[in-house]
Amino acid sequence: MSTDVDDFTDEQLDIQREFMEATAPEKPVPFPASEETGIVIGVPAEIYHRRQLNTVSKSALDLVERSPAHYWAWINGLERRETPALKFGHAWHMAILEPQRFSEAYAVAPKFSGKGMKARKEAWLMENADKLSLSEDDERDILGMLESVMCHPAASRLVLEGVSEVTLRWKDPITGLACKSRADYWVKSKRFAVDLKSTEDASEDAFARSVYKWGYHKQDALYRAGFLACGEPINHFAIIAIEKEPPYAVAVYTLDEDAVTKGYEAARRDISRLDECIKANHFPSYSDGVRSLSLPHWAA
What is residue 3's predicted lDDT score, i.e. its pLDDT? Predict the structure, then answer.
């Protein structure tokens, strides 16, 4: 496989090791007894996404960055409800990364109308009780996104010869906090990981803004640190950006050196802040005092 970026230099790898270099401990503490450090394949999503106080994850760091109070509310809140957007996201991820499982797990619900609609709908639900339902519109979009990825010269090659839904668990050597991350796809032999991201606009300028807004550069940092800590350092992390509406345009990106560095800095800052809050048992929100507020720069 060819790539548009060179392998990381020794200096860059040293930066990664300084950020988070760890070996698996003799006992999997502070992880629960049912979990182990290292790379694990096949962890169910509902197990991976359990909220754990002393565990670093991308979701946790995003909330800490907003405010520790938002993180604390998330830790102690009810489980996240399955919104239509989340349901759609789970389905299209599975369609691209696990097509066989997708075909077995989902059934497309027809549009019921006219006389006897209720009875026909109930009969269909009973017949497909063991499957997840998908609307015809969602199926159209998912198949369109899948076709676009498979027809894209670079994207189609990135999701071959590897494994999907790869869970990483390790320990932060600086704070002692447990860390976890979950890569959409990993090709061990070629030392790269891939994430799929749906977006409204996959063009270069627009998606660069999305990377910053949604913290994908921090996700890059956690992936690199996790694979390194688990003894399988990756040279590249690629993002396959797919638009959710026709023509379902696809673009593949890797972050440049500056973005990678900023991702590590942001992740390190959030991890340190989380550690301080846990040790102090104090999770503040924004400011405790009165602050002067300026208009954003674009308002000028």
Answer: 39
**Under-70 pLDDT residues of the chain:** 1-36, 78-82
C-alpha of 59 from chain center: 8
pLDDT at position 117 is 79
Instruction: Return the residue matching tokens 């182990």.
Output: 36
CA 163 to chain centre: 15
Global pTM exceeds 0.85: no
Taking the C-alpha atoms of 68, 72, 78 and 81 in order, what is their torsion angle to the nearest 10 degrees?
20
SS3 state of residue 21: coil
> Could you tell me the CA-to-CA distances from 6 to 19, 215, 265 in Å, in that order?
21, 23, 22
Tell me, what amino acid is at 86?
L
Which CATH fold would you assign to the domain 10-82+137-282? Lambda Exonuclease; Chain A (3.90.320)
Please state whether the peptide bond connecting residue 68 to the residue before it is cis, i.e. omega within 30 degrees of 0: no
pLDDT at site 127: 84
Inter-helix orientation angle 58-66/216-229, to 10°: 140
Phi-psi label, residue 80: left if phi above 0, alpha if psi -120 to 50, beta otherwise? beta
Q: CA torsion 251→13→276→27, rounded to 10°? A: 110
Give the pLDDT confidence score for residue 122 in this predicted structure. Answer: 82
Residue 32 half-sphere exposure toward CB, CA atoms < 13 A:
10
Domain boundaries, the chain: 10-82+137-282
